[in-house]
């Protein structure tokens, strides 16, 4: 709901920017550093506006935060609340519990991404803003993949430690670091060599809204997710669970 | 399975019960067999070298003060925590590697019962019934009626006793081969407590097994066949409840109309005269009261009082020395 509302507000502002040529001039006047950091490309075109306003930071980060909160609760939540004793007394393995909860998280995150895409894609034309479905899908998919990767990182920390707070903290910090690495890479030459390490860069660095889907980059994230999931299952399975 | 090592620590289960249940092929292996189990925590606490076998059709009471290792033992049975050494087997299955198969046949009530606060009792049972493949709704409703539990209110508004009922029904509703109950009657009113005890006895009579923990012997003694006493992480005694009872010393005071027959009491086995009073005796009787009652039958008894020390006193005073 929050994400959808935000999108509607952003979309409704677009016509006034679109018709106002002075906006373009304002941004041309901005220093190079600023434009790169905030991903200001072309504010007055549809994809440019969405890219800057929604997909530069807000949408992927909101999606990721939502997924991280969920992911940190997957393994550590029931342990923290004590209900894991009752749950595991049933004929279900720890692995199955984690896998099923993780599957729900993936579906939930994709569902939220679909809501985002639907809102932007259907309401965009009403505000004379048109983005191709392909670009939009690519951006939403990239954002969802980013969110799922860090949610799975939160799951892994929670599964190994049993602490929701730690899981949340570590995953959020990594997500922000990954964004900063990608955003600052054009400015800091040292970052340029390692920017490929940033899941953010893999998911969103190529401006999917305008350049479309890049399966190779998404599959890098897929590998990361699979590895993290395996670590989660392994560490959760071998550990004593707290009372 | 190493029954020979168990026999040194634990009494073999009652053979008559074992025979009654033993016809079923799935009941050939002991429902619970712990061998040399050690689980020590860094801050101290835990259990050391615990060996114990519980047989079919038996109600076993696991007794000890708080912090003695009861919950640690029970959570190892459930594979929630793992021992550092020793083996934990349920129905002959490894408690860890065959956890799913073992859990299909057991019901568990945790000591620190945490429930899904937003679900109602009905939804909680439905959730577990989906995972277990039963029981149906009608069975759940029968249990709720029997224990007087409101099924449709969210668990978070329930009282302590009612929450405990949710936990108990969750454990018992499938009539599992093995019930593992950590402090089952905490918070229950006496009436419900009696119902639960009756249900546990019925389960044992049907050849199923109950393993329950408590820190109150009188409660355990009411329902259990055998009692194991754990202290500071060590199992220091296993006894039949009937034997503990037999060791109890009763203080008996008898007053009679004519003092002539009293001499007959003095010669009885297990009877010691503590004090002679004007028209009677103060006695200490070890074991059964039947001989003394028989002797009194021919006398003109004016008054008879029997004070039974609590089983607590009997059991704990007996083992006080061993534990320290």
Question: What does this entry look like structurally?
Answer:
The complex is a heterodimer of chains A (243) and B (324). Chain A is mostly helical. Chain A has one domain (59-237). Chain A is built from 13 helices and no strands. Chain A is globular and about 60 Å long. The model of chain A has no long low-confidence stretch (mean pLDDT 82). Chain B has a domain at 249-308: Alpha-Beta Plaits (2-Layer Sandwich). Residues 1-23 of chain B have low confidence and may be disordered. Chain B contains 13 helices and 14 strands. A 6-stranded mixed β-sheet of chain B has the order 6-7-8-3-9-10, with helices on both faces. Chain B has helices at 3-9, 15-22, 70-77, 99-103, 121-132, 137-147, 160-172, 190-205, 217-223, 241-247, 263-266, 290-296, 311-323, and strands at 32-40, 46-54, 59-63, 85-90, 93-94, 106-109, 178-182, 209-214, 226-231, 234-240, 249-256, 271-277, 280-286, 301-307. At the A-B interface, α6 of A face α4, β6, α5 and α7 of B.
Category by helix and strand content of chain A: mainly alpha
Biggest chain pair contact, residues each? A-B, 15 and 27 residues
Number of helices of chain A: 13
Q: What is the makeup of the main sheet of chain A? A: none
Class by SSE composition of chain B: alpha/beta
Percent range of helical residues of chain B: 25-40%
C-alpha termini separation of chain A = 36 Å
Q: Termini separation of chain B (Å)?
A: 31 Å
Low-confidence stretches of chain B: 1-23
Q: Count every beta strand of chain A, where a strand is a DSSP E run of 2 or more residues.
A: 0
Mean pLDDT of chain A: 82
Point out poorly predicted stretches of chain A: none
Instruction: Kindly report the spatial arrangement of strands forming the biggest sheet of chain B.
Output: 6-7-8-3-9-10
CATH architectural label of the domain at 249-308 in chain B: 2-Layer Sandwich
Using only CA atoms, what is the Rg of chain A?
20 Å
């Amino acid at each position: 709901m929050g994400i959808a509302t935000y999108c509607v507000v952003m979309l409704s502002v677009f016509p006034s920017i679109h018709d106002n040529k002075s906006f373009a001039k304002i941004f041309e006047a901005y220093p190079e550093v600023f434009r790169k950091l905030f991903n200001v490309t072309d504010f007055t075109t549809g994809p440019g506006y969405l890219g800057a306003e929604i997909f530069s930071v807000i949408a992927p980060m909101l999606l990721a935060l939502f997924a991280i909160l969920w992911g940190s609760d997957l393994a550590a939540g029931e342990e923290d609340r004590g209900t894991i004793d009752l749950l595991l007394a049933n004929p279900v393995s720890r692995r199955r519990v984690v896998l099923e909860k993780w599957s729900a998280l993936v579906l939930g995150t994709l569902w939220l991404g679909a809501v985002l895409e639907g809102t932007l894609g259907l309401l965009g034309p009403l505000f004379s803003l048109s983005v191709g479905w392909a670009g939009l899908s690519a951006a939403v998919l990239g954002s969802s993949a980013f969110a799922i990767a860090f949610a799975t990182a939160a799951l892994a920390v929670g599964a190994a430690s049993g602490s929701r707070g730690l899981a949340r903290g570590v995953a959020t910090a990594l997500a922000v670091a990954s964004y900063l690495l990608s955003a600052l890479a054009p400015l800091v030459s040292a970052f340029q060599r390692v920017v490929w390490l940033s899941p953010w860069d893999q998911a969103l660095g190529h401006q999917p809204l305008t350049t479309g889907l890049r399966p190779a980059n998404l599959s890098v994230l897929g590998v990361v997710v699979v590895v993290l999931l395996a670590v989660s299952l392994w560490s959760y399975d071998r550990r004593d669970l707290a009372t | 399975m190493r029954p020979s090592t168990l026999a040194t620590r634990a009494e073999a289960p009652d053979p008559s019960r074992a025979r009654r249940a033993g016809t079923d092929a799935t009941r050939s292996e002991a429902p619970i067999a712990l061998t040399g189990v050690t689980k020590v925590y860094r801050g101290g606490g835990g259990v050391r070298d615990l060996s114990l076998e519980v047989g079919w059709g038996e109600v076993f009471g696991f007794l000890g003060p708080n912090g003695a290792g009861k919950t640690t033992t029970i959570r190892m049975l459930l594979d929630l925590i793992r021992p550092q050494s020793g083996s934990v087997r349920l129905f002959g299955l490894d408690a860890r590697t065959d956890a799913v198969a073992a859990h299909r046949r057991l019901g568990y009530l945790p000591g620190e019962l945490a429930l899904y606060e937003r679900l109602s009792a009905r939804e909680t049972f439905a959730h577990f019934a989906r995972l277990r493949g039963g029981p149906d709704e009608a069975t759940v409703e029968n249990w709720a009626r029997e224990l007087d539990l409101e099924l449709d209110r969210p668990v978070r508004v329930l009282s302590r006793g009612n929450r405990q009922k949710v936990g108990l029904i969750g454990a018992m509703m499938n009539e599992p081969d093995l019930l593992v109950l950590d402090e089952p009657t905490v918070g229950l009113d006496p009436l419900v407590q009696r119902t639960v005890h009756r249900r546990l006895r019925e389960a044992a009579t049907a050849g199923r097994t109950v393993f329950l923990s408590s820190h109150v012997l009188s409660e355990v003694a009411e329902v259990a066949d055998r009692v194991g006493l754990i202290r500071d992480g060590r199992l220091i005694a296993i006894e039949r409840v009937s034997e503990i009872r037999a060791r109890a010393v009763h203080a008996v005071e008898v007053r009679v109309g004519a003092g002539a027959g009293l001499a007959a009491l003095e010669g009885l086995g297990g009877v010691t005269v503590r004090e002679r009073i004007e028209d009677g005796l103060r006695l200490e009787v070890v074991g059964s009261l039947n001989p003394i009652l028989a002797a009194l039958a021919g006398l003109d008894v004016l008054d008879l009082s029997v004070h039974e020390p609590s089983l607590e006193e009997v059991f704990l005073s007996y083992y006080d020395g061993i534990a320290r």
